[in-house]
UniProtKB/TrEMBL annotation:
This is SWIM-type domain-containing protein. Residues 190-220, 277-303 are annotated as: Disordered. One of its GO terms (molecular function) is zinc ion binding. Residues 140-171 form the SWIM-type domain. Residues 293-303 have a biased composition (Basic and acidic residues). The keyword Iron-sulfur does not apply. Signal peptide: none annotated. Keywords: Metal-binding, Zinc, Zinc-finger. Residues 198-216 have a biased composition (Low complexity).
Amino acid sequence: MDKIKLLASPKLIEYLTTFYMTNEVMRMWSAIYRKARSILEACNTNMPIEAWHHVLKGKFLKHKRNHRINHLLHTLIREVIPYFSLRQRRQDGGFEGQDVEVAKRAEIETEGATYVKEDIEHVHKKLYLVILKSRLEHQYEVDIAMYTCTCREFPLIKYCKHIAAVQHHFKEVFPSLPLLSHCESVQQESDSSADDLTPSSSANSSISSATNPAASVTVPQPPTLTQVATVPQPPTLTQVAMKLERAAARMRRPGLKPGAVPSLDILNSRLDSVLEETDDSGVLPSSQGMRRNTNDWHETKESENRLTTRFPLATRSLACGHAFLSCDASHTPNF
């Protein structure tokens, strides 16, 4: 800053101090505060924002000046979001090239393979020290248990070449868990179920087991198809809604006579009872019409203010486009 003060004019110094050197703004552009960011946030200029504005103004707004907020919202919702959603699906399918995170991981795997085992020091259990090849006296700390590294590139994708090198030369060995055999598991189930038996049944089972050892092991039998079919399964709301939609689509077909389906009378009565039992309140409030803008602006503003209590967000966003909403093509608004 001192060098800039010696070379720059006083007006430039005043401009930088006023608009760029405040604490709130400095956190947005200074490299001191831009740490631990992902690879999608790693940009040193505002060129990505400028590029987005260029796409919005040139591709979607057709280089035309926008005068209404409702037109901008319509463009963002109906054109911009579907366009980038399709781009995202194409990228997920591999049609837009390799993902930046996938490409960075492939680069890290290649760089991690260049390390040898002598470059890594095993400190304690899951803790390792990996040297920096450009500065051999500097080391980075890798914690495999927490899966972290102290290098600057680790926050990009939560993975770095030092972790890749440690995983390559110090492979983790997981102990195998003891598994019970099928006969042992069945025996344990039979032993646990024997506690619930009555004395007479337990005595009979002990006698039969003495004569026949194989009879002491009771293998549980799976339920038959008849037993499964007899168990009532309550229908889900999604299944009922899908069936109603299919039935409604079939009944709208041309040529279908009212008496062709006798069960429609039963369905009609059942639907009446369902409608009485369910809540009829909708997600959106009931609609309220607005009168046309035929008089001066003050009367129109009063009618819009009456809607503010019920539609605060919608009225606020559409206040600039009142002429578009309240007038038809045959009326010209009076401003």
